[in-house]
Specification:
This is CLN6 protein. It holds the Pfam family CLN6. Keywords: Membrane, Transmembrane, Transmembrane helix. It comes from Chaetorhynchus papuensis (pygmy drongo). It is globular, with a radius of gyration of 25 Å. The protein is built from ten helices and two strands; from the N terminus they run αααααβααβααα. A two-stranded antiparallel sheet has the order 1-2. The protein is mainly α and 317 residues long. Helix 1 crosses helix 6, helix 5 runs parallel beside helix 7 and helix 7 runs antiparallel to helix 8. It has one domain. 62% of the residues lie in helices and 1% in strands. The chain starts with 44 loop residues before the first helix and ends with a helix.
């Protein structure tokens, strides 16, 4: 028809050229597709090394840095060295988790990953504030092996409504902050784990570097589970990983080097937790702080109960 524009067909793609971008070709981390093929993925030594190193330095090391550095450098009414460590952790960890997801050979659910990362950052930030104040209270005589109301420096506060405020702070630190921090953390690790399978049995082996890194990684997860009081979350994640391994084995699929590293790290972590609980099984004071069926004392509660008193006795000599 005269005056009407004719549609021009799309040019055919050249043989071997990549497909055009658009709704028919979702991004790398879009919804999981049934036609995904299993690809090989080498061991991510750089990411796993950086991940383990920053966990030890920025997470485990932050309360240590706060205790050993001179108090004059970081007054009690200002952020401590541990707080700056925590701030760096809140930025670096989600970045490394995203890089880990990017290297997955399998297409992963992008929306779930993004929501998990956002929740992780929010929970870790909530924990930053509560943990900062709670650790500062150590310098005033606060004892982590006692509950908030049983602590001598809290018990005598006037008016008594101030005790409720400290209990609210403890709730943000130990419950809400930990939940919003650790649930997305383990969820992202599990999402990544679902893509660590291969049909080639020769690829189901770890390099020497992975075996050397597995010890520090497992020890950090032990600290994370015990100090964070997240054993139920950890064990459910581990059981889900075991179930997935058995399910994929029926299809003829085995874990690749990255999957083996993560899976074996969780197994060693479970053994470390069992040894920790067995060692402190008859500690009556810690038993009182951690009642119930699941008894897993926090390392810093053990420190304030036993090691801190030992250091004070040595200094008095």
């Amino acid at each position: 028809m005269q005056g009407s524009a004719r549609r021009r067909p799309f040019p055919a793609a050249a043989p071997g050229s990549p497909p055009p971008a658009g709704p028919l070709y979702p991004g790398r981390h879009g919804a999981v597709k049934a036609e995904d093929t299993f690809k090989t993925s080498p061991f991510h030594l750089d990411l796993w090394f950086y991940f383990t190193l920053q966990n030890w330095v920025l997470d485990f090391g932050r309360p240590i840095a706060m205790i050993i550095l001179p108090l004059e450098w970081f007054p009690l009414n200002k952020p401590s060295a541990g707080d700056y460590f925590h701030m760096a952790y809140n930025v670096i960890t989600p970045f490394l988790l995203l890089k880990l997801i990017e290297r997955s050979p399998k297409t992963l659910p992008r929306s779930m990953v993004y929501v998990s990362i956002i929740t992780f950052v929010m929970g870790a930030s909530i924990h930053l504030v509560g943990d900062s104040v709670n650790h500062r209270l150590i310098f005033s005589g606060y004892q982590h092996h006692l509950s908030v109301r049983e602590n001598p420096i809290i018990r005598n506060l006037k008016p008594e409504t101030l005790i409720d405020s400290f209990e609210l702070l403890y709730y943000y630190d130990e419950y809400l902050g930990h939940s919003m921090w650790y649930i997305p953390f383990f969820l992202i690790l599990f999402i990544y784990f679902t893509g660590c399978f291969t049909p080639v049995a020769e690829q189901s082996r770890m390099p020497v570097a992975a075996m050397l890194l597995m010890g520090p990684s497992s020890l950090y997860y032990w600290y994370l589970v015990t100090e964070g009081q997240i054993f139920i979350l950890y064990i459910f994640t581990f059981f889900a990983m075991m179930a997935l391994v058995m399910h994929q084995k029926r299809k003829g699929l085995v874990l690749d080097s990255n999957g083996l590293f993560l899976f074996y790290s969780f197994i060693i972590t479970l053994l470390l937790i069992a040894g920790w609980v067995g060692w402190l099984w008859n500690d009556k004071i810690l038993r009182k702080k951690y009642p119930g069926v699941i008894y897993i004392p926090e390392p810093w509660a053990f420190y304030t109960l036993h090691m801190n008193n030992l250091h004070a006795a040595r200094e008095s000599l």
